[in-house]
Amino acid sequence: MKRLTKEGYQRNKYLEDIGIPIENYGTNYCGKEDKRWKKWKNERKKYGFDARECWNLDSSFVEWIYSHFKKYKEDACIDLSFHKFQYNKNDKNVEITQEEAIDIICDACENYLLTSFVDRDFLSKDVMLLIGDVMPSMWW
CA dist 25 to 16, 21, 82, Å? Predict the structure, then answer.
């Protein structure tokens, strides 16, 4: 598959894989033709990112969680069934593994990103609590 490239745009394999156009990423709103490009370039030098990521912080956050959790799962050299978590599924607490937690979180992120942010289920208390629960075990 040919990877998208546009001068001045940041690629994200995982967002490409689910069909999100490169110009729609939180890091890529408004391209190089925008008169503010120099300002954003200076912000990236100073902060490591620019203000465009903050315009839609909700989508930037979800994009980050989605792509980094996908990469973590691909590269993990640990047993992803070792850590266990409680998750509220259909109003019933169930025990899930770290891998299952990652899958639930990634599925929720993907759904959120592909429904033009209309589906706010990602922001549900249960998924957000799951992110908080799983984060301390996201290392190897």
Answer: 10, 7, 34
